Amino acid sequence: MVPKLEEELLNIENIRALAKKMRRLRHEEHYDQGTWVQQTECGTACCLAGHAAMLGGSRPLTKRDRKKLGHEGDGLMKTPDAQYEWVQELGGQFLGIDEESWLFTYQPDAEGRYPAKWPAEYALRWRAALRGESDERPSRIAADLLDAIADGEVSL
User: What pLDDT score was predicted for residue 3?
Assistant: First the structure.
């Protein structure tokens, strides 16, 4: 389990690396704040914790891994040293934040998933994007939020 971390222990470099990755996603379907990590026809879709874990060197489970575990392995990833760890723990370690952070949460509604515990400015932009009320991409909104965290404009 990842210990609760104080804000001064945030890994700003890794937060900025995640923001950069989110800004550069070619396929928006590779970012889904409502799923830890999932293999799709188009590649791997995951939430911020999953993308952070992958930047840290962890990988989605293979069919062989899932067979070895005896279940689908929902929420697990394989670390560089071949251990199975929870996505939110790996993402939290990479970013230097608590695995229970509001950054990794979402709240489903009738229209889809949105990060209800995010600061209002970002949550409202996200929801508008999901409703088709704006041309913004959720991954870019997440990148803006990560930049604001790294710049000290938003506290975790």
Answer: 37
Q: Look at residue 133 and tell me if it is in a domain.
A: yes
Q: How many CA atoms lie within 13 A of 115 on its CB side?
A: 26
Q: What parts of the chain have a pLDDT lower than 70?
A: 1-8, 73, 107-113
For the chain, how long is the longest CA-to-CA vector?
A: 44
**C-alpha 38: how far from chain center:** 12
**pLDDT at position 105, please?**
79
Based on the structure, what is the number of domains in the chain? 1
The number of CA neighbours under 13 Å toward the Cβ of 46 is: 29
Rounded Cα–Cα distance for residues 89 and 99 (Å): 5
For residue 67, CA distances in Å to 57, 62, 64, 71, 76 come to: 22, 9, 5, 7, 13
Distance CA 140, CA 137 (A): 5
pTM: 0.88
Residue-range definition of the domain harbouring residue 36: 7-150
